Amino acid sequence: MNNRIFLKNLILYIATIFLISGSISLKAQESLTGLQVNPKIKQLYLNKSKNKATQEKSPVELPFIDDFAKSIGYADSSLWQDEYVFINQTYAYNPLSIGVATLDAIDGTGAIHSNANSFAFGADTLTSKPINLNYPGDNTIFLSFYYQPGGLGDTPDTKDTLLLEFYSIDSVWNKMWHVIFNENDSVLTEKHTYGDTTIKTINGDTLTDLKQSFQQVIIPVNENKYLNNSFQFRFRNYASLSGNDDIESKTSNSDHWNLDFVILDKDRNINDTIIEDVAFSEPIGSLLKTYEALPWTHFSKANAHEMEDSISITYRNLFNDSLNCEREFEIEDIKGATGTYYFSGGTWPNIPPFSYETYKRPIDYIFPYDPSTDSALFEIRSYLVTETPPELSPYRWNDTTRFMQKFYNYYAYDDGSAENGYGIIGEGTERAMVAMRYNTYKKDTLRGVQIFFNQTLNDVNQYTFKIHVWSETDGKPGNIIYTQEGLKPQNEDELNKFTTYVLDSVLILENSFFIGWQKELNTPEMLNVGFDVNRINNEKLYYNFSGNWVRSQFEGTIMIRPMFGHEINVSTGIISPPKNQSLEYTIYPNPASDILNININDQFIENYRYTIFDIHGRVFKDETSQQSPIDISSLNTGVYFIRIANSKGSNTTKKFMIVR
Questions:
Q1: What is d(CA 529, CA 650) in angstroms, rounded to the nearest whole number?
Q2: Which end of the chain is less crowded, N or C, counting CB atoms within 10 A of the terminal residue's CB?
Q3: What's the CATH number of domain 284-407, 2.60.40, 1.10.150, 2.40.30, 3.30.1380?
């Protein structure tokens, strides 16, 4: 792992050298870039109620504890009052427990901060709710936390800063601590500004070592101006955008700082730095050896090759003494009738202090394949059972980890979450190609391709491209066996949603093949496709801009998925019902602007499913509705199709235009 991240950082550093001056042409290369929109945060922002619930007026009581294992997305609203940082399980390297708070250059709407630039700017803020510290004269109240610069995300630039502030009774935010990153010397410089100012320098043997390490800080809260019933503290970061303005697809989110285990409590001292807890430190993963997901109709043939013979969990004892815990497991058939399968990993007595363990539990479970269904979903759970005193109950969120094992109609290497963007960039890459190797366990019809696109600055991701399918020759892409031209990326608003491109002709595949894309227009800009750094499959990823196929040097997975089986009707991997008789309806107005009315000539239809897609097969809406009109205000001007289907499988497609 260390070598992997060191290589990634070295490559990014070399690429940055070419970006220092806008007058220097960017050389042809494969490239990773940070996200310019965080889709998880964007979806949470779009789904927020316009009428927020009334904020609680009573202060939070001690202990104030958050290890960020409770939720994904926004911070726990019972402890924090703002929504800028990203709570996640994917950006930290070797965290203390699953879940960290990541401060970066993206705001609470999921987009890059409006004041962002290449110089230091105020970015994210994580502010506690008012806390009851009405303990006059108490010298035993301390705030502790862990921080990590970079992790699996972007390393802060030199002079980028993370700081901590306290809110005093005179309504002033006072800076109590900050850390400055110096990538040139692999140094972190902490400055404590409470009492006598102290400076602490943290050196790393390499830049990689420094960005992978978690550092702990503990600070007293003993001044009278803070000891009241409305005390608050906040973390803030100063960031600077990576890339430059001349290469828009390189300008992206940057400068990650990860926080973990924030604890504010009394009856502590400056040496109270040990956490009495056993916690999961990595999320549980797929029970498939190669893929994160595969078509359910292929599972009976894939089973012998794909099923793991054990289930793996990783956890650690954070305490300075041995602890006991039980390891339990469950696999629940969400869509089927087989219920929940329980099995135990037994009790592990006397877990050594500060130990980090990976446990593999052999299993004889096989997903119950039902040939009458075309999809399946299973939730895999593991949880730790320990003796928990009441004062440690806030730690219990890190005792459970879950994974949704999906069997729809696609193969997937990625986990559905993009940490970076991938593409081929620079002069000489105008017709560059990227290809990912797949193996299908069943001879079947390739119906479509799903691609996850990252939103890019000023919509520079809107260059057209081709989808190619290649045969395999000596482990590399061989002959092109299918091409679809004139496609454009589509940045979806929904949570981590892939854009679906439906093939315009029948293509039957078996065994190994490659799918990917080729840029069509003469531009050095990259086609910015999601890149998952937590799933390593670059031995299957190749690029070509000079006539030769070269294996990718970036460890991770591009987010592209082949779809098999019946005709595709929706973009979520659910298979459409077979065609029956046509369904009669009219649509108006046509051309339309912001709404589309539907008049179905069947008085017995109480609800219907409609799908709106364009001439390239990209699906923009797929919903069940009981009323008309349909809101189409978010769609651009152009030609579209709408397909209406009832519960009996009858469906009819009509064409309409949007003109504004």
A1: 36
A2: C
A3: 2.60.40
CATH of 34-265, one of 2.60.40.10, 2.60.120.260, 3.30.460.20, 3.90.79.10: 2.60.120.260
643: closest CA among 654, 630, 633? 654
pTM above 0.85, yes or no: no
Query: Does the pLDDT of residue 210 top 60, yes or no?
Result: yes
| CATH 3.40.50 matches 420-564 | no
- Count of alpha carbons within 13 Å of 307, Cβ hemisphere only? 16
Q: Which fold has domain 585-658?
A: Immunoglobulin-like (2.60.40)
CA distance 1 to 567: 41
Asked if 468 contacts 542 with a C-beta cutoff of 8 angstroms, the reply is no
Q: Quick one: pLDDT at residue 493?
A: 47
| Mean of the per-residue pLDDT values of the chain | 83
From CA 183, how far away is CA 207, in angstroms rounded?
7
SS3 298: helix
The H or E element containing residue 305 is helix 299-306
- Give which of 146, 97, 86 is closest to 313, Cα–Cα: 97
3-class state of residue 212 by DSSP: helix
Least confidently predicted of 63-67, 80-84, 256-260, 461-465: 461-465
In this structure, are residues 436 and 540 in contact, taking their beta carbons and an 8 Å threshold? yes
